[in-house]
Amino acid sequence: MSRLSKVLIGIGLAVVCFVQLLPFYVALTTSLKPKTDLSSQLALPGEIFFGNFASALDDGNILRAIVNSIIVTAVSTFFVCVLGALAAYPLARRGTWVNKVIMLVILSMIMVPPLSILVPLYTMLSKMGGVNTYWGIILVMIATHLSLSVFLYAAFLRTIPSSLEEAAKLDGANLLQTLFYIVFPLLKPVTATVIILTGIATWNEYALSSFILTKPDVQTIAPAIASFFSLQSSNLGAAAAAALLALAPVLIAYLFLQQYFMKGMVAGAEK
Amino acid sequence: MTTAPLKPSRGLRRSATRGGGYVNLLYLPALVLFAVFMIYPLISGIGLAFTNWNGYSEARSFVGFDNFARLFSDPVFATAVRNTFIFGIGCTIIQQVFGLGLAIALDKPLRGRSTVRAIVYLPVLVSPIIMGTMYYLLLQYNDGAFNDVVVAFGGERMAWLADSSMAIAIIVAVNSLQFMGISMIIYLAGLQSIPEMYYDAASLDGATTWQQFRYVTVPLLQPAFATSIVLNLIGGLKLFDVIKILTNGGPGYSTQSVSTLISTTYFDSQSAGYASAMGVALFAIIIVITIIMNKVLGSRKVEA
């Protein structure tokens, strides 16, 4: 490659990085300046002001929202993994026509846009008393993310020979023993993918949670930020601070687990 | 999928598969959840689409195909469908161009390339609500950084989101920038799966860099193209979060997607029956597009 094209590629990549980081930088400078500071967003604050973070924590209930998100994400992701792996086992190992039809139905669930089932889902949940409850949103999150999990586990299981399971069976292991001692330990790599995809998706979910969770004490971060933002259109410093606080857990996870995130996403997309 | 390397003897195979249908019990919990929270809502949504239900009262009556007929004569729905396609197709094109470009640039050994990959990919993990909030800051009339730059170059301050075509372009741009990292890593994985010897053979035969790209890289990236295009297209057609935070469908109804229009029709206009009809239409649009794209791009299954 010529020197010139190397330089051009370098400049292009630098511009892309600048554009990708700009919103984060501007959110940071805005959050650290008082409302009276009229300097450009691009300028760093003269002295650091924490009042916006205080109002995000006090008025925006952001800590509560982060705790809610942790609860909803952890429980939903756990069940998406367990129920997904359990469901995938017979679907991958017993190719009867009934199972093939069931697999096809589960796969088509991936395509359902959340808003297309909003009206009946919300109606049903409010009849069940599940609106503004943890269990309501967790059941909905499990159901809407389970199909991808079943698919990924089934695809992975088909690449593992069943000879180990047969050996376990000959040794007298029953089905549950075989699953827990032989099969599940083999599923670790695909489980990492499922945890990352489901974890990120439920942590950020807004389309359904914004309707199911309207009360601040149960709201997860995406609906909480959106409602705080719509109330704070005159106080954008506080909105920026809230956005950054909600970002922090994801950024910390990304910093430590970067490689897993990218690999997980590719594995999820390629299957 | 590959077949098992070890073929068990016939007797063993039978004992494993005929071991009893009770293995199928393992998918019952998943099926119950799907039935209650996905399939029942889908079917009952179709039922509601034939009523004039307002969303909360007991009263509802069967109105036949009225709601579907109304979809075809409703200018607001027509705008939402048009916008939905602009979001879907616009984002897909931008993300392929940037995703493939970045993947090619970052496939070669380069100082700092893992940092660049990490930065490009970072917004993928961020909630579109948060991403939208941060871009909203940049687009402020009085002290937004965009207007500062415009003024610095002697231009006039703009109300970026007040003009509907500009707002649509901004929504497409924000969503594309946020998710082009997904396309990038799909193409990177695709590029890394092409054996180096194909390029060696091509250059021995005297192929130029462009010819190598056109006749080696592009055909062998076919599965990556299929995955990335279908994924981005479905994502764009479902677009909801970023519109809600940046414009909430406005000014007027001019930036609504079908998804955002469903939510306003249900919760603000209290036309649950009509909103259900829109939901059925959205699902139908996505299924038809997915089937067509899978046919066009090769019979590869692609999932989110």
Which characteristics define this entry?
heterodimer, A: 271 residues, mainly alpha, MetI-like fold, 0% strand, B: 304 residues, 67% helix, disordered N terminus
Summed up, what is this model?
Chain A has 271 residues and is mostly helical. Chain A has helices at 3-31, 51-58, 62-93, 97-108, 118-128, 134-157, 163-170, 175-186, 188-204, 209-212, 221-231, 236-270.
CATH H-level name of the domain at 82-255 in chain B... which superfamily?
Answer: MetI-like
Q: Could you please say which CATH topology of chain A applies here?
A: MetI-like fold
Helix content of chain A: over 70%
C-alpha-based Rg of chain A, rounded? 23 Å
Mean pLDDT of chain A: 86
Largest sheet of chain A: none
Q: Which homologous superfamily in CATH is the superfamily of chain A?
A: MetI-like
Percent of residues in beta strands of chain B: under 5%
Shape verdict of chain A: globular
Assigned CATH class of chain A: Mainly Alpha
CATH architecture of chain A: Orthogonal Bundle
CATH architecture of the domain at 82-255 in chain B: Orthogonal Bundle
User: How is the main sheet of chain B built?
Assistant: none
**Terminus-to-terminus distance of chain A:** 34 Å
- The number of helical elements of chain B comes to 14
For the record, the count of structural domains of chain A works out to 1
Order of helices and strands of chain B: HHHHHHHHHHHHHH
Our Rg estimate of chain B from Cα atoms comes to 25 Å
